[in-house]
Amino acid sequence: MSSTSPASLLDLELQPGRPPMLRVETTDGALSWAAEHRDALRAIVAEHGAVLARGLGLRDAAETGAVFRRLANGLMTEKESFAPRQIYSDGVYSSSKWPQNQPMCMHHELSYTLEFPGLMMFACLGAPAEGGATAVADASTVLEALPTELTGRFEREGWLLTRSYNDEIGASLAESFGTEDRGAIEHYCRANAIEFEWQPDGGLRTRQRRSAVVRHPVTGRRCWFNQIAFLNEWTIAPEVREFLLDSYGADGLPFNTCYGNGDAIGEDVVQLLNKVYEDNTAREPWQAGDLMLVDNVRTAHSREAFEGPREVLVAMADAVRLADCSPTVEVTAA
């Protein structure tokens, strides 16, 4: 079906199981089209949570960065990253470096920070031979589909993210904090309500408690907003999990998630979360030149396993403060 309501102003394809899609025809180039249709694109995202624009013909990082900057209200510099990225220009990154045979399950970008992107932008410069879609799922629908006893506990307690930084796996201190200076890292942690402990080998372990359910800062809709499943040990491939446990121990995993009181989250809970996400997933294989915009609070996104080269550029934009999203647990920064 198509929609030409005032909220969209563009012909929009809405099909079950697929993200909202626009088929674009432009003779003046992607940047001119983005400038002309900026407000309409943002209106579609506000109404539907995401949109995939096909036919823009994006070809390189410079053009893509210009489109990102034209569509955003301001690009963000990533902090507290969980995996390395290539930096193309200020606020323009590669997708996270993650084994291509392992999916990155549904999550909301930087949902463990006190200031996170309200808008995610993705551009495909090179589509993989198979798989690799950036799929999406509506966070309010997911919340409603989860057992109320489970979501009630997370609303009361929040969720706890534990991290162990080292030089061998995941993002380094410099990649996550923008510096290796201990004083600067400690200052950042205190200002962002992160408990920290330096290890004898120079590594860093951190803990931060956050809300699992928030209200959208514009609509007030309750959203399941977190990375509980994605960053949990039970989402890691079994052979990789076993290797990490053998190498670093249960307390030294690069990242893990718990209930807000520190209790372990069972494998059954993580499987349930991922099943509910899968039941509510919309996906469309990338084509070179595609552009996708995602409301990061309302809509979770994933990266599916793939074969062959894949080049997807990413920008995080329109910063939102956790304090403006009615968090259910108190977070106090020093």
Automatic annotation (TrEMBL):
<dbReference type="InterPro" id="IPR050411">
    <property type="entry name" value="AlphaKG_dependent_hydroxylases"/>
</dbReference>
<keyword id="KW-0456">Lyase</keyword>
<dbReference type="InterPro" id="IPR003819">
    <property type="entry name" value="TauD/TfdA-like"/>
</dbReference>
<dbReference type="Pfam" id="PF02668">
    <property type="entry name" value="TauD"/>
</dbReference>
<keyword id="KW-0560">Oxidoreductase</keyword>
<keyword id="KW-0045">Antibiotic biosynthesis</keyword>
<keyword id="KW-0408">Iron</keyword>
<dbReference type="InterPro" id="IPR042098">
    <property type="entry name" value="TauD-like_sf"/>
</dbReference>
<dbReference type="GO" id="GO:0051213">
    <property type="term" value="F:dioxygenase activity"/>
</dbReference>
<dbReference type="GO" id="GO:0016829">
    <property type="term" value="F:lyase activity"/>
</dbReference>
<protein>
    <submittedName>
        <fullName>TauD/TfdA family dioxygenase</fullName>
    </submittedName>
</protein>
<keyword id="KW-0223">Dioxygenase</keyword>
<feature type="domain" description="TauD/TfdA-like">
    <location>
        <begin position="32"/>
        <end position="316"/>
    </location>
</feature>
